[in-house]
Each structure stands twice: as C-alpha cells, then as structure tokens.
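Batch job 17 of 40 flagged for manual review because the log was empty.
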Amino acid sequence: MSDLQLSIHHNEQSQRFETTVDGTTAYISYVDNGDVIVYDHTIVPDAIGGRGIAGALTKHALDYARKQGKKVVPACSYVASYLQKHPEYNDLKIQ
C-alpha cells in the first residue's frame, strides 16, 4: 500500500465514490437499495493504476456502508476480493 493521500468525494447524484489523481478520475459505483448497498463497479484507469487507489476507494465505500447501517452486496469482483482479504468487514456481507 502506498502513502498516497486521496480526497474521496461522495457523488450522491451519480451514486459513486470518486477521487481524482493527476487529472484522472477513479471511482466505485453503487446501487442503494435501502438497507442494502450493491457495489457494482470499481474503475481505476490504467494511467493511475497500481497505486492502491482501488483499495482506498473500496475501504471508504465499506466504511460508508457500515456508518449507514447497510449490508453490502459485492457485485464487483474487486470488492468481492477485497472483502475476502479483509475479514474485519465480514459483518457487512449478505451471505
């Protein structure tokens, strides 16, 4: 993991958490179904890849779900993989 300091913005209108690095935007999008939030895409363009941005976005998104009292459906393969590697978020997953 890098020392990258990201400013992550919750774009509620677009239903995504986003950050811009070196003029390029990366994001994790979701569908809010009330008490369940579905994380469906994690997009980090190649130009800014390999810096831990996807992980930071996913952590931010999962922390948001926890604060909102929502369960998580990891429809995105990156989010599913992140959850497997971070058991501290197991309570958020719908089995």
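Reviewer: the log was empty due to a logging misconfiguration, but the result itself is present. The chain has a mean pLDDT of 94. Unflagging and moving on to job 18.
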